[in-house]
Write a structure and sequence with these properties.
It is a single chain. With 468 residues, the protein is α+β, with helices and mostly antiparallel strands. It is 62% helix and 8% strand. It has 15 helices and eight strands. The chain is globular and about 65 Å long.
Length: 468
């Protein structure tokens, strides 16, 4: 039986206070959905701070991609756990959610009182361009390091084609890549070696298990018991106290089930929730669901924080004896609790075993292949993100097994550039401020959104695996 690993006393000299500042910085800058958030964490934790190595970062990411729920928040929890054990994981994962949860709560109140939040969306819209640049940079950087041979490049290309052109399910892509890598690693094929890319590992944690030691299986039972109680105790209390038909009980049960079955990224989660909350529970309308998604896209934190908006409206419209605004706030907080507490359970229960298995050749091969597939998935998200950021309208193409989106012919871009001479030019550049070289000297141009409209995302099972 495989024993889990546990964090011993660390000697990397990064204090909890310093880690708090770093995770807080990541949290307030985590715009752009999972791809932008993962890219940001890679830049800060791997390149700037050098807390973890490239291999260890990808190993953690691969595990988080296999879990239900928001992978970016789970990755933050995982690395926080690696650095400072359970307190570090709770701090990192909690901070990752907090700014977005606070922003969505405020915007939800504004939405039901005033009915519009367009000015907020317009204010944040320009940040999306910078996020797009970060995502593209992440594809290039991770691709160079993860795709070490032709076979891995082929896997990445196949994953991209499957999810972009054929709308393949992300779990199917990951499972297929994992099986290929598992048997390739088991057979000893060098293409699936879990080794690094040849660069010297100068990260604080290193790339070995020297800070981990065996722990008893009993500790895993305790971890599971603790987090199951934290997660499900409010659900049981509501069911017993208010009955199964009360709106708070229905919110607790529905989003608890959602936390267990929504594999495949943020947009897979949102597609499932939109169908159930709009069509079955009638908690909100389809236009309101899109408004909530617009809020989540223009605020920091996991994209699935939009679920808090859904819970808010559900309780606001069926408050019982409570004031509607108070009921809405409690419904939103309950939704956030039952959505994100399970994420800590998956990490604290599974991560020790995943760390213990890092030296297993077959598992290393599986995760190496999954890493290659993830590069293709991130490329898909970068293109999807660019289409919806740069252009006003995208046309879905279906037929002969294909399912993807392209720019509508004649559609204008979302960006206008304003020159110092007041001449206005249209541009599809993906950065907010840039330099254009003219015949005389470089000129600065400032680009802003050509409208205050929010980009409308099409929830799709394949749109965003790296989109939790």
């Amino acid at each position: 039986m495989i024993e889990p690993a546990r964090i011993e006393k660390v000697d990397h000299e990064v204090t909890l206070a310093e880690a708090f500042r770093v995770w807080a910085r990541i949290a307030v800058l985590s715009f752009g959905g999972p791809a932008g958030q993962i890219a940001l964490m890679h830049k800060v934790l791997v390149e700037e701070r050098r807390w973890v190595s490239e291999g260890r970062f990808l190993h953690a990411l691969n595990y988080c991609m296999l879990l239900p729920g928001p992978e970016a928040q789970q990755l933050a929890t995982y690395i926080g756990w690696l650095m400072h054990g359970t307190p570090g994981g709770i701090m990192a994962g909690g901070l990752f959610v907090l700014p977005g949860a606070a922003a969505i709560m405020v915007l939800s109140l504004v939405y039901v009182v005033f009915g519009k939040v367009g000015f907020v969306a317009a204010a944040f819209f320009g940040l999306k361009a910078a996020v797009l640049a970060i995502v593209v940079q992440a594809v290039i950087r991770v691709g160079r390091r993860a795709l070490r041979n032709r076979l891995l490049k082929i896997l990445a290309g196949a994953a991209f084609a499957a999810i972009f052109f054929f709308d393949a399910s992300f779990p199917v892509i990951v499972l297929s890549a994992g099986l290929i890598g598992y048997f390739g690693g088991k057979a000893g094929l060098p293409q699936f070696s879990g080794g690094g890319h040849g660069a010297k590992d100068d990260s604080l944690l290193g790339d070995t298990d020297r800070r981990h030691s065996p722990s008893s299986a009993g500790s895993s039972v305790k971890v599971a018991g603790l987090w199951l109680v934290l997660w499900l105790a409010p659900v049981v209390v509501l069911l017993i106290g208010l009955g199964p038909n009360d709106v708070f009980s229905r919110i607790a049960v529905f989003f608890s089930k959602m936390a267990m079955v929504t594999f495949g990224g943020a947009y897979a989660v949102l597609a499932y929730v939109a169908q159930q909350a709009v069509d079955n529970y009638h908690w909100l309308g389809s236009r309101e669901m899109l408004d909530g998604l617009g809020m989540a896209e223009t605020t920091p934190g996991p994209l699935v924080i939009v679920l808090q908006f859904v819970g808010f409206l559900a309780a606001y419209r069926d408050p019982g004896s409570l004031p509607p605004l108070l009921a809405g706030a409690l419904g939103g907080l309950l939704t956030t609790w039952v959505t994100f507490v399970p994420c800590f359970l998956w990490i604290f229960l599974g991560a020790p075993y995943v760390e213990k298995l890092r030296g297993d050749a077959a598992l290393a091969g599986a995760l190496t292949a999954i890493t290659a597939a993830v590069v293709g998935v991130i490329l898909n998200l970068a293109i999807w993100f660019a289409v919806h950021i740069l252009f006003r309208e995208a046309v879905p193409i279906h037929g002969f097994g294909f399912s993807f989106e392209v720019r509508r012919r004649g559609a204008s871009t979302r960006w206008r550039c304003f020159w110092p001479s007041s001449r206005r030019w249209r541009s599809s550049n993906s950065i907010s401020a840039f330099h254009v070289r003219s015949s005389s000297a470089p000129r600065a141009a400032f680009c802003s959104s050509s409208s205050g409209q929010r980009p409308r995302a099409r929830p799709s099972k394949g749109a965003g695996a790296v989109t939790k």
